[in-house]
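re: ur question from yesterday

yeah so i grabbed the chain u mentioned. its 206 aa long if i counted rite. heres the sequnce exactly as i have it in my notes:
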Amino acid sequence: METLRDKDTFLNGLIKSNPDFVLVLGMCPTLAMSTNLLQGFAMGIATTFVLIFSNIFISMLRKVIPDKIRIPCFIIIISTFVIIVELVMRKYFPDLYSTMKAFISLIVVNCIILARAESFASCNKVKDSAIDGFSMGLGFTLSLSALGFIRELITSGTVLGLSIFNNFPQMLGTSSKAMGFIVLGLSMAAFNQIRIKNSKKKAGVK
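ran it thru and got these structure tokens back, copy pasting raw so excuse formatting
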């Protein structure tokens, strides 16, 4: 029974409540940091780290955090792990950090993390909260990576900076941003169409 619950919690962030494609949370970093595969993946990993450890600590402290000041307490806990991510990226990945630093700092108020802290970690056990954080983070990472891969390929003809199509006309400025919205919308539509179709199939609905 516990294994089944863990499985449901894990699949929730990947499919049923995918942060980007189902809940439509964190759209600012999603659109800004999915211009290429590397940035999308890095942003997803950074967010996953913060999600897992903030969920764990909020769950551990849920019975001692006063209800009236729970949101400020959540933000303090979240910001601690965001600072850790910033320090690590600044030390070991300075070039990547220089292109992402504004959005790394904004993880503190990312609505995905605050939503999981409020709706899940603050009322569930540590193990379940850790699984939820990993699941939501993985769903977010896969979404950003997929969007980054498609957008980089379409707008510049490259993947991870490596040229796939020779003499490919690059999209810059407004054209690149517009393509981001188009790719996101089509990806959301495709994901939800497949998700709903599979749900109906499991329920025996034609």
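noticed a couple things. Residues 17-196 form one domain. also The two ends are 29 Å apart (CA to CA).
anyway ttyl
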